[in-house]
């Protein structure tokens, strides 16, 4: 049922992707893909692979804290 005033699930997706792109661009410099590593291609990647931004940030945080614990 179409309800024009009802909030949509996708309302916050663009903001979430933008945030993920900024986060990853702050901690990564390249990737092992045929496409150039830039914000536009990273946003396309996050649109295709929902949840990848959170997974990357989580993995990065984990590697940084485990590395510090080991030293």
Short characterization:
It contains 3 helices and no strands. The chain is mainly alpha-helical.
Explain what you see.
There is one protein chain. This protein has 71 residues and is an all-alpha fold. The protein has 3 helices and no strands. It starts with 12 loop residues before the first helix and ends with a helix.
Compile the SSE list and pairings.
Elements (H helix, E strand, L loop, with lengths): L12 H15 L11 H10 L3 H19 L1
Helix pairs in contact: 1-2, 1-3
Key attributes of the depicted protein:
3 helices; mainly alpha; single chain; 71 residues
Distance between the termini: 57 Å
Strand content: under 5%
SSE pattern, N- to C-terminal: HHH
Task: Give the total of beta strands.
Answer: 0
- Largest sheet geometry: none
Percent helix, as a range, is: 55-70%
Structural class: mainly alpha
Number of helices: 3
Global mean pLDDT? 84
Gyration radius, rounded: 16 Å
Low-confidence stretches: none
CA-based shape: globular
